[in-house]
Amino acid sequence: MRLGGLEAGGTKMVMCVGDENGEIFEQVSIPTRTPAETIPEIIKWFSDKNIDALGIGCFGPIDVSPESPTYGQILETPKLPWVHYDLLKELQKELKVPMKVDTDVNASCLGEMVFGCAKGIDSVLYMTIGTGVGVGICIGGNLVHGMLHPEAGHIFINKHPEDKGNCICPYHDSCFEGLAAGPSIETRWGRKAYDLADNDLVWEIESEYIAQALVNYILTVSPKKIILGGGVMHQERLFPMVRKKVTKMLNGYLNTKELKDMDNYIVPNSLSDNQGILGAIELGRQALEEAR
Ligand code: ADP
Ligand code: ZN
What we know:
Layout: E1 3-8, E2 12-18, E3 24-31, H1 35-47, E4 53-58, H2 87-95, E5 99-103, H3 104-115, E6 124-129, E7 133-139, E8 142-143, H4 176-180, H5 182-189, H6 200-221, E9 225-229, H7 238-250, H8 257-260, H9 262-265, E10 266-268, H10 275-291
Parallel strand pairs: 1-4, 4-5, 6-9, 9-10
Antiparallel strand pairs: 1-2, 2-3, 6-7, 7-8
Helix pairs in contact: 1-2, 3-10, 6-7
The chain binds adenosine-5'-diphosphate and zinc ion.
């Protein structure tokens, strides 16, 4: 089986060819420009790769309902040239193979479940904290869609009393992404996040926000494992801080074997930042299976 994977991001497009075992044969990355510039490049790269199917993990919001007439269309995004762009249809027109599309974070969640640290677990939450915050959720083996798909980066959060910064989300006064994503940290402190490694208050505030978000997810969707990725989570010291705060905030309310084993419950991504592209490959495998 030759499976194509596309991870469509706001800054770059990662393309690969691999197989159902998660082996990647070839991988390239190109900058994301306008659809008119970027889509022909993508089509050209895949056109001589002899792929049987293509899986796509894409930035949101995007229509992820296979039964919808606008399945695979990018919706109202701040990336203006891409608003209402029919990503899936345009690729299908030229490449003519079965395709399946989901959000970038649902793809990452899937990648970790099929090839990574969440193998064999059917209910998993994946969150990336980078330029923005995205959350992918799989419950009982199904990636969560619903009316659209989760946008759980924008849940409301209580501000830390020592946080002198502001929520920078243009839509909300006190949401997680606006308080805790990389650009928010950098606006609050006036320095690059990786230059703040030694400032304890930065990570005290950050871990407080992450813990608040995770507690809300734990209480709402009850994941059996939580995987955290993205640039900000490169600060490894966050993990023990977040685990401790989550335990404290839950305050003994839930008693599960997963929560008793915090070190294996809240974990870093395990696929060297290939979880998204590997999840896309798995979406391709599913597209092929569903087409048969
Ligand atoms: P994207 O979200 O665009 O895919 P990343 O996940 O790499 O990209 O996130 C980029 C953000 O992560 C930057 O805004 C920066 O603030 C933050 N970041 C990158 N590296 C580090 C680091 N080592 N420590 C803390 N924050 C970092
Ligand atoms: Zn918001």
